Each structure stands twice: as C-alpha cells, then as structure tokens.
Amino acid sequence: MSDAGASSRTGRLQTRLHVPRWVWGVVLALVVLLWRWTEVSDLAVTPAGRTIALQALTTGLLIGGVYGLVAMGLSLIFGVLEIINFAHGAFLTLAMYLTWVLADGVGIDPYLTLLITPLLMFLVGAAVQKVVINPAMGQPLENQLLLTFALSILIENALLLAFSANPRSVRLDYANASIGPVEFPLRIGGAIIELPRIVAFVGGLAVAWALFSFLNRSRVGTAIRAAGLNRTGASLVGVNVDRIQVLTFGLGTAVAAAAGVLVLPFLTLEPTTGTQFNILSFVIVVLGGLGNIGGALVGGILIGLTQEIGGLLFPGQSKLLPVFIIFIATLFLKPEGLFGGGAE
Amino acid sequence: MRRTRYLAVGLALTIALAGCGGDEADPEEATEDGAATETSTEAPTEEATETAAASPTEAGTASGEGCAELVIGSVHPLTGGLALDGTQMDAATQMAADDLSTDGLSITIASADSQGEPEIGQTEAQRLIQEGANALVGTYQSAVTTNLATVAQREQVPLVIDVAVDDAITSEDNDYVFRIQPNATAMGTFGAQYLQALGENAGEPIETVVYMHDETSFGTSVLAAFEAEAGNVGIEILETIAYNPFEVQDVTTEMQRVAAAAPDALVVTGYYNDGVLVAETAASVQPDVNAIVGVAQGAYDLPQFPQDTPDASNGIFDSNYHFDATKERVQDIRSRFEEENGDAMRTAAVLAYQAVEVIATAARSAASCDGADIAAAIQEVEVPEPLLTFPGPITFDDSGENENAQPVLMQVQEGEVLQVYPEEFAEAEPQFPAVPWQ
Amino acid sequence: MSTVLRDARGQLLVLAGLAALLATVPFWLEGSARTVMIRIIISAGVGVGWNVMGGFAGQFSFGHAAYFGIGAYSSAYLLVDHGISPWIGMAVGAVLAAAFGALTGWLSFRYRLRGAYFALATFAFAEMLRLVVQGQEWLNGTQGLQVPVLAESSWWMLQFSTTSPNYFLVGLGLLVVLQAITILLFHGRRGMFIVAVREDEEGAEASGVDATAHKVMAVAVSGAMTAVMGTFFVQVFFFIDPALAFGPAESVAILLPAVVGGTGTLWGPIVGAAILIPLGEWTSKIVRDPPPFLDFVAGRSGIDLMVFATLLILILLFLPKGVYGSLAERFRR
C-alpha cells in the first residue's frame, strides 16, 4: 500500500498515460452488467432494450470525455500547485459567458471562439494565480481551499451582476445539418448522437492531445513537469518555480475554458452552471490519481459510463450514488488513483 | 423635528406597554414596537407621515382603528441560481405597492434576500418583522417557504405565498399562511385532467404516459398527485424517470427509454434548464408520442422557451399557473413592468404582485395594520378579478389554500406560448396531436 | 501552535467570564440582532467541533456536514415521527455521529489517507449521506422534516416563544460546554497525544502512543460536538432537508469560522464566527441601505456576496493563521 498524499509537499504530476490492462477489465465488466440489465429489466431482450444499452454506452462515453477534459485542468493544477481549486467550475462559467458574448453579441461561430476564449482565460487564470493564489502557496490545505471557494463566490456573483440570472444559450445553426451522406443527429444502431456532443468529445480529445504534447515536448512543458515532480529540485536546476506556477494555473484554467466552449452548444448557461462540474471533477481527479493528467481523462470517461449504466441498473437512485461508491472504494483500495504507480 | 417626535411617541408607547406587561415576553414585544414606530418615520411621503402621526396604531398593537402605513416584507432569492425569478418577484411587489397605495393606505415594501437558503430566509423574515413588517410575501422555494411559515405562525404575522408548491407548507393548524398558486396536489390533479380532456376533445384519447421529473421535492410531489388522479381519468403511467435538475447534462438514454415505452404522451415536471434539455433531446430522439406535456414545468410556459429552442418547442404543452393573458389589467401591468425592468414579466412576478394585493385588500377591510388582524381578514377576504387564470375570486379555505387556484393548459404555437384550455381562458385552439419535429 | 495551550484553569476562567458576560446579551439586545447572535453561536459551535479534528488533530475535514446532518436528522426524526424530546435526540445524534466518525475515520487512517485525499474522502462521505437520506421515504426524502410548532414554550421540547431569551441562553450553554470539553481535552494527556501525533506521527508512535486510536478519538469527539449543534440548529430554524444538512455548502460553512479565526487555536473558531456572521450581515445591509456615496449598489443583487468574498480573501491572505491565530502569535513575540 503506497502512502497516498504523503505529508511531503513534493508534487506528483504525471503526464504520461499508462492504462493498465485491468481498466479494460472494468470497462468490460460495466458492459456485461449492462447486457445483464437488458435481460432482467422489464424490457427483457428486446431491440429497444439493446438500443437503450447502446445509448447508455455512447452517452456515457461522450459526456465522460467532457468530464475528463474539465478534470484534466484541475488535475494539472493540483499536480504542480498542490491545491484543490474550488474555483475551477466558476472559471468554466466565466469562459462560457465570454463565449456567449462572442457568439451571441459579436456573431462569431461558437467553435471558433476556441481560439479566443481559452487564451483570454489563460490570462485571467495566470493573473488570479499571481495576485491571489501565489501569496497563499505553502499555506495549509484548508486556507487554499477556502481561498478558491471565496474566488468562486466572487466570480459567480460578478457574473450575476453583469449578466443577470437570465438563462442564456448558444445553439448551432448546423446542429441538424447533413454532411454528405451523414445526417445529424447521428443514428447508430438506434442510438442517437447529437453533433455538438460529438464535437465536444472529439474536441476534448484534441485538447487533451495538445496538452500532452505541450507538456511532454515543449521546453516550458518540461519545466512544468520538473516543477510538478520536485519543486526544490526544479528550482535547483534553474526553473523559475513561481513563474511556472503562474503558467500552470493559467494553463489549467485555459483547459477548463476550452471545455466551457465545447459544452456551451448543448447546455443552458447561468452564473452557477460551471459549479455543477466541480464535484464530479474532484471525484475524477482522485480516480485518475491527483496530478495524473491522462488518468483524469480516462477517469472522466469511466465516471461518465458509471453514471449512465448506474442510472439504468438502479433507476430509483441518484446517478451520483454509484459514482461516490466507486470513489470511496478507489480511495481505500488504490488511493494513488486507478492509474497510479511510478509517480514518485 | 418631526423625527424626534415619533421617537418620543415610540418611547412612550414602549414604556406604557412595558408598564402593563404581565409576563416576561412583553418587554421585548414593546421594544420592538418602539423600533417599528421608528421605522415609520422613514415614510416615503409627507402625507403618509402625517397620517401616521394622527394614529400611532400602525405600530401594530391596537386594532380596528384603520391602517395607514402598511409594511410588507418581501423575501425572495435575489442571488444564486434562482435570482432571475427572485429579482422579478421583488420588483413586482414594489410595483404593486406603488400601484395600490392610496391616500388612506401607504404600502411600503421591505425587501430581503433569502439567497435561496432556508436559514437565511428565516433570519431575514424575522428581521423584517422586527423592523416593522406587518405581513410577508414570498418565497419561490418550498424549503425556504416552509421555514417562513413557521416564522409567520410564531410571530403572528401573515405570510402570503406567491410561489411555492409543497402541499405541507400550509395546514389547518397554521392560521397565518395563505397560498395563491395551485399547490402540488392541484398541479398534478389538474394536469392529469387536462391531459385526459386534451385527448378526448381531439378524439385521440391519451391512455398511456411516461413521466419524467426532477428528483427534488417539487417533481416528486407533483408526480404523486398526478399518479393519484391518473387512475381516475383512465391514464396509465408506464414508467417514471427521475433526474437531478441541477446536475443533469444529458438525457438521451432516458429519452430512449421513453421511445421504447412508446406512450401516448410524455409528461415532464421540472425547472428551466432541464426542461430545455428534455425538449431538445426529444427532438433528436423523436420518440413516437402524440404530445409532450409539461405539468408545472418551469420552462414550457415562458416566452423565452420558444426563443431559446425554436426547433424543439413548437406544439409542447404546459399545464401550469399562468397570468391571465386575456385580461386588460394584466396586460397593462405586464407592459408597465417590462418598461421599467427590461424583462418580460413572468407569472411568478405576477403572483408576487397578486400577493401584495391580497394583503392590501385584507388590511383595508380589517382597518388595521396588526398582523393577526390582517391574517384574520385574509381568511375572509375575497379578491375579485384575479390576475391569474383562476375561475373565480381569490378566497382561502381553512388550511389557507386559494379555493379557486387552478392551472391553465398552454401550448407553444408558432413560437408563442398561448393559453388553450379550459375554454374560458383560451387564446387559441389546442393542436393535438402535435410534437416539435412534425 | 501547541504552546497556545496554557493552563486549563485559566482558560476555563476566561470561558466562564465570557459566558457570564454573554448571558446578559438577551437583556439588552433584542430583535434581529439577537437572531444574529444565535447564528454566531451555532457557527462558533460547529467551528469548535471542526477544530478538534481539523485543527488540533490536523485531519482536514471537508465533509463535516455529515456530522452536522446526523445530529440534525436524528433529533428531527425522533421529534417529528415519535414526539421524542430533542434533548434525547441530541444525545442520540451525538452518539451516532461519533460512531460514524469513528468508523469512517478508522477506515481512512487504516488505508493511510492524508491531506487532500483525506479531505476528499470526508467530502465523499457527506455527499453519500446526502444522497442516501434524500432517497429515504421515512425521512421524508428531499422534502425534509419540519418541527411542529407548539402552543406553549417547553424546556423539555426545546421550544420557546420568539421573543424568549432562552434560545440564546441554550445555545450559549451548549457552546460553553463544547468549548470547555475542548479546553479540558487539550490540556489533558489525551489531547496532548493528539497534538503530538499531528506534529510527528512516527515520533509519537515510537514513544508508545497509538496514533490511529488518538486520531479516531479526535474524529469521534469532533463529530459528536458538531452533531449537538446540528440538533440545536433544527430547534432554532424548525426545519431540515438533505441539502441543508449534508450539502457541501454546510461543510464549507463549518470550516469557515475555524480557518478564519485560526485552526488549532482554542479561541479561533469563536473569534472567526464572531467576525464572519456579522460581516455577512453587514455586507447585505450595505447593499440594502447603502451610504450616499455607494448609492449605485442599492438593490444590486450579488454585490453583497462579492464584498463578503473579497473580505474573506483578504483575511486569508493577510492573516493566514486566522485572525485570532495571527494576533495571538504577534502578541507572544
């Protein structure tokens, strides 16, 4: 049993993804459970039951990708700064409002704002880190948590003041278009997939890939990894750790912003919208291993699947209950995360 | 100075009452009255102050000598996720106070922010009462309203509920709580009846439904009432599907279950965001149903809904409380509200306006600003020409429910929300079968 | 930090003096100000409870709503469904909360959860309780429980008229008991060991202290203390529902006073509560009734919470050891 969260404050950033074989086992188990459901439920073994099962798998996968993307930003920030950022969801909301202004006010295609919103949010995140978070580095966990909590109240209410609580939405004109022979929403074996959800999933993977490449290949990325593995060591070899922390927080915020842009075309926006991702993101980050960025992505997908399949298996219960059960089990049995090991 | 004079009156009253107080609770009461008198010095008009000076009874101690200065506490969520309706409702109480104030009765609103939290709502309500509020209006949420109902009962100040659906809030044991809107039972019961009538009138009966609802007390209590009535009107519920309205981001799988059950109609109860999500997902999955019908659904009766979701809203019904769009007075209030506040006035805000009117009417007939007197008067009050689609005047039964509370069936037709049933409130004929994707 | 603990008798004397002073409050303060005082007391009480675990034992709990909720629901259920006195409900709640704390604490320590992992585990336990309770018909699901209003005041049923000073006095009494327990505990051997384990677990173990047992004890005591205030909360506010009892907002509200006042200090949570609650009241008052130069904020919803959040950030940044903690440190120098 490894000593998770050992008292030493050295980071545990992990930027490579090893998916152990047993994870596929878990996925397989979920699918078997699902199949079993189609047999025991009222629907018995009907084509309709199979369609629902297929839908649950698709939806879980797609929404899980988005969860994973949000959680990656959080995990990155934890890996380097070792803070639980409660304001992550609020940053996501802020990014969504930025996108809404650009799309609805200026008339830019919402997906094109992927080139603008994350950039702006990077600056916001970096500034917030420098002014508010940095002075609190090295303080106890609860101080940092409350600090980011206060930040989230501040952001949420600033948005309320600026935009009122009136729900806003951005919808794609081409959500139901057909590209060649492919018609949206897509129908695969009866399962329905809406265009914006596909874009969110694929876009999420693309952002993840970009983040991985940046961290693993670029000079700055190398510095971030160094700071994430050993702060003192990094500063000894000439890395400006303070600056790296500013960069990392900005980067994590930008990832959340990208997620915000990608989910906006299928969610309704209010000043509290992003906060709903907070709790799930915490769960996913632990599941993937705090600071394990690839783990967060896979963890997100696992949670997406668990939610959907759990929802079918236990229809009377909250979809979150199986998620928390898995969460607790992971904490106890494999506290370094499902994909942990080798970080330290 | 006039101000000092009132302070003196308040002080004298305090001392007088403290003097004759028998048990230990009295001194406090008296001091509060002093505070109330002090508050009244900040009367908005010179005139009103003059009247107040003439009769120091507005402090809420004596009764039967007329009410000149009525202070109504308005408790709504002005921040947080429900702030939109909350701020509208608060503005509406203000507008009602301005509209309904006369030379003889000046109405002031004291606003408070519940922040959507029961204990804050309760603290704020107590503060308002202690600062001189003679009655309360609120609160939009069942949990907060439940708390305020207790405050009202214990402080003997009437609470007129504008919006809150839980049946359990009112009871025969509590003489201080009144509700204008239909409660959960009325919502569910009428919902089932309208559904049945809708199918029968069109010659295509609705016999089976799947019910999707939010898992909070709102959705579960409306569902329970619908279930109870469904049997009576020959509707079978094939399946109920619950979801968390604050965290739901995808209901495609749920919609596939609807499609698999293939009911005559899909029934939906919930809030705005989840309602939009359900409608959009239905348009994608296109289950084989004849109608999508909201029962107390928080999105499908709003003009914003067809604007937000032009492709997924046409034909959707909602059985919900609604301002009576056919009445001129309502049109006037709503257009003035929109002028002042920018946003179109929602039904929740119209209900808040109506609540102030109920209290004002009762205060006039009680000729007293005392909370207990007003409460007794509300019990007997009859407010004609309600602003909502109620079949008769607003009167309250023993437990404080509006005896004529009744929802109306609306339908989105060509991008507009129109009242379609019952006939006396209909702006257009219902179109059935009808789903957005046809 | 442990040096803050001076002699127990002195601290108890301070507490007694403070209590005597505060006991006069209802006789010169009434109306809404008194309600605010009661909220300060509840906030201080849960903060004192949290501090035993989060401060002295150094086990950061981000899910103390679990204990608060257990206390609130135990007494509310027994009272509403069985007419049993809330005093008994309070005791039952405290025992249940201690048991729940001991169990989850033992599991967490057994599996060596620490720091952020431990915090998130406590968070998850509270969330699970919330989800489970809202699915229980016999606890009235998401609708929650409502305390019936009695015609007469009753000490046994812990219900008084709204103008009665008794709510305040009962709350004050409970707070004094909780604070006295804390003082005695951390001036005794057990408390010293708990702090020793926090400072150097291996060292403490080496000198024969059972680290796990002491940590579990701190969690159980802390849980029971918080549960007591949960019961008091229900009696004051007459209502409880799953979100109010077990929600993340409650967990944050519980750790706020301790952190703002100073974690691991005897008086921190009380100082923190005495600052935070009036601060919140003051910020909403500013928006409601702004001074002339701030006229533009009148009635703008959201500004009050922004001001509150900003002040909270400033306190955390400039007084990182809490208001009391930082001042006490400076004073000693």
Radius of gyration of chain A, taken over Cα atoms and rounded to an integer in Å:
20 Å
Radius of gyration of chain C: 20 Å
Shape of chain C: globular
| Biggest sheet layout of chain C | 2 strands, antiparallel
Supply the number of helical segments of chain C.
15
Amount of helix of chain A: 55-70%
Total of DSSP H or I helical runs spanning 4+ residues of chain A: 12
Structural class of chain A: mainly alpha
Structural domain tally of chain A: 1
Average pLDDT of chain C, rounded to a whole number, is: 90
Give the fraction of residues assigned to helices of chain C.
Answer: over 70%
**N-to-C order of helices and strands of chain A:** HHHHHEEEEHHHHHHH
- In percent terms, what proportion of residues of chain A is strand? under 5%
Name the strands of the widest sheet of chain A in spatial order: 1-2
Classified by CATH, the class of chain A is Mainly Alpha
**Largest chain interface and its two residue counts?**
A-C, 48 and 46 residues
